[in-house]
Specification:
The protein is an alpha/beta fold and 343 residues long. The structure holds pyridoxal-5'-phosphate.
Length: 343
């Protein structure tokens, strides 16, 4: 039922990508006089456009073959490229759930793609009632599912996600930015089963490399090739590639930090639940907590005065603030200051 030729835009199918010097000659040694680089300096050479060394390391850590990996300048580049590969501006549609990650909407607007927004139910889960008729819409090309979801923190029901992937003939992108903090299985091992699945992860959260801007997409080789065709030739700088390589050598330390964050998430939850200004702490599979308060604006402003910055999400989820889990000391300071707030 899935036909890649029906979901990729015609201009993308016929596009002849820019062929850079590093595409034509792939050797690593020699006298390089092919790319108008300076012969001087340490950062004078263009980076590998396909980040092959980095992909070898990512492949090893994630257990996904290199041909199934695309690396973007942050997940945000992968989101943008997905719109540009699959959705014809002004004609095709994409679909997101609400509340979810804001970039899906911004990127749709930038690319002039109409967006269908389906509200999550009261448990922040996907309701198939409103979704089902959309799955048949021939103009709908791309569905974003964020799991664990930002800003709600919950993982989406996996049978619902599989239902969507198998009953939709367009692309499904599952954004797993927070998967390392969750006890649930990644969908990355299902890309062989589903030709219309893209699973996205990032080095910005659990790996502590938000400044470095590297996101991962795991998908079928045909789709990886479309991403490669569409991206700017040197989308990830050599400095950033090396920063990720270095971090991947400290994988054990990353795991320890993730464990600490998960432990603090539990402790912070329990402490928050004791406070009368807090109505509900939503269960979280991520490195943040969504918290319903009696007065989000007031609490937000009082915390800012103490130089503690949380995210006021009350315009998106009634009465809610989103709190990123900090270090133990930072979390203690937050609790201490919340205790002082009287409504
Ligand atoms: C933080 C976050 C990302 C990460 O984006 P990068 O561009 O890789 O930093 C992706 N998706 C969601 C839902 C996020 O919250």
């Amino acid at each position: 039922m899935f036909d890649i030729n029906k979901v990729v835009r015609d201009n993308v199918k016929t596009l002849i990508p820019y062929s850079c010097a590093r595409d034509e000659f792939k050797g690593k040694t020699g006298i390089f006089m092919d790319a108008n680089e300076s012969p001087y300096g340490k950062l004078n050479r263009y980076p590998d456009p396909y980040q092959n060394d980095l992909k070898t390391s990512v492949s090893r850590i994630k257990g996904i073959p290199e041909e199934n990996i695309f690396l973007g300048n942050g997940s945000d580049e992968i989101i943008d490229l997905s719109y540009r590969i699959f959705c014809k501006p002004g004609v095709d549609k994409a679909l997101t759930f609400f509340p979810s990650y804001g970039m899906y909407e911004v990127s749709a607007a930038i690319n002039d793609v109409r967006l269908i927004r389906i509200p999550l139910n009261t448990d922040f889960q996907i309701d198939t009632g409103e979704l089902d008729p959309c799955l048949k819409d021939p103009e709908l090309k791309l569905i974003f599912i964020c799991s664990p979801n930002n800003p709600t923190g919950n993982t989406m029901d996996s049978s619902k996600m599989e239902y969507i992937i198998s009953n939709f003939s367009g692309m499904v992108l599952i954004d797993e930015a927070y998967i390392d903090f969750s006890g649930t299985q990644s969908f990355k091992n299902k890309i062989g089963k589903y030709p219309n699945l893209i699973v996205m992860q990032t080095f910005s959260k659990a790996f502590g490399l938000a400044a470095v801007r590297v996101g991962m997409a795991f998908t079928n080789p045909d789709i990886v090739q479309y991403f490669n065709k569409m991206k700017p030739p040197y989308n990830i700088s050599i400095i950033n590639q090396k920063a990720v390589q270095k971090k991947l050598m400290q994988f054990e330390e990353v795991n320890k930090q993730v464990d600490k964050i998960k432990h603090e998430r539990e402790r912070l939850t329990q402490n928050l639940q004791k406070l009368t200004i807090i109505e509900k702490v939503f269960p979280s599979d991520a490195n943040f907590l969504l918290v319903r308060t009696k007065n989000a604006d007031l609490i937000y402003n009082k915390l800012v005065k103490e130089k503690i910055i949380v995210r006021n999400r009350s315009k998106i989820v009634q009465g809610c603030i989103r709190i990123t889990i900090g270090k133990r000391k930072e979390n203690n300071k937050l609790i201490k200051n919340l205790k002082k707030i009287k409504l």
